[in-house]
Specification:
Length: 305
């Protein structure tokens, strides 16, 4: 039997400095066939021109700036693969990532998605640390908003189509909201190997300051999730725990962006909603991360330079 086609979309908005490494990491994989689709989301920094240098080996799609979710939807809509993936333009795959992921999905017939451990790297691709992704738990995803899949996640196309497209209204956590819906279609399987690299830099989505609208997304996503009855029956009574954690995550985004009054308001609301969360180390880790994450990473980059 021929190997299944794997379609990988790289959405890009003004990441010309990192884009080539992302593209080359896919083209260097020891698996075939791979379909690579590059989606320029209205870049103005030369990203599209760089993409066109690869047009003999992949598809290049251009659209006005509409966000990551829109770019991924556009790419997946044109993809032909049995398995789908996306790779942020500032991240990259490690050797063997596609082959190992396909092997996992073929072996784990009931899994709709596989994800891996990954390397955290700095702007110069120097290793910061290895991140061991958590084992998947739908309960933890719903109640603690723990997003197990990171860079290097691959899914079955059929399951993705049942879950529906990415929510294009979201700009901060569209990936989490999509995984939340995909989890209703089946099990997520972890590969305990580092098969991708996640880059932190001043412009990365999980590092840079965000608008108040983006900071509100964790709460809005979970409110809609419970309002639409998407929570499995055994988790429906845990709404307060879930929304309390969502408020903590929104507070962290406000802290990162310097809106301390908004952060304090949300933390007070989270404490009133579900006080037990504040007895957990993870809650305080998120708060400290919101206050000091940028400072610590910039200090590390300066030290290494």
């Amino acid at each position: 039997m021929s190997a299944p086609l794997v379609s990988i979309v790289i959405p890009c908005y003004n990441q010309a400095g990192f884009l080539r490494q992302a593209i080359d990491s896919v083209l260097a994989q020891d698996y075939a066939p791979i379909e690579l689709l590059l989606v320029d989301d209205g870049s103005s920094d030369g990203s599209r021109e760089l993409m066109l240098q690869y047009r003999d080996r992949c598809s290049v799609i251009a659209q006005p700036n509409a966000g990551q979710a829109s770019a991924i939807n556009r790419g997946w809509a044109q993809a032909r693969g049995t398995f789908l993936a996306y790779l942020a333009a500032d991240d990259y795959l490690l050797p063997g990532a596609v082959r190992r992921s396909v092997e996992c999905l073929q072996r784990e017939a009931d899994a709709v998605l596989c994800y891996c451990d990954f390397l955290l790297v700095d702007p110069a691709s120097r290793l910061v640390r290895r991140v061991a992704a958590p084992e998947f738990s739908r309960r933890d995803m719903v109640t603690r908003l723990i997003c197990a899949p990171g860079p290097g996640a691959f899914l079955r196309r059929a399951a993705g189509e049942r879950a529906g497209p990415w929510n294009e209204r979201l700009r901060q956590i569209p990936d989490f909201e999509f995984w939340l819906r995909l989890a209703a279609e089946g099990r997520f399987c972890r590969i305990p190997e580092a098969l991708a690299a996640y880059r932190v830099h001043d412009g990365s989505q999980s590092f840079a300051p965000v608008s108040a609208e983006r900071a509100a997304e964790p709460v809005a996503v979970m409110q809609e999730y419970f309002r639409l009855g998407r929570a499995p029956r055994e988790l429906r009574d845990l709404q307060d725990e879930s929304l309390g954690n969502a408020q903590v995550l929104s507070a962290r985004l406000h802290l990162r962006s310097g809106r301390f009054a908004d952060a304090l308001r949300l933390l007070w609301a989270a404490l009133r909603r579900y006080p037990v969360n504040f007895l957990r180390l993870r809650t305080w880790h998120l708060i400290v991360n919101g206050l000091a994450n940028q400072v610590m990473h910039r200090a590390l980059w300066s030290f290494r330079r």
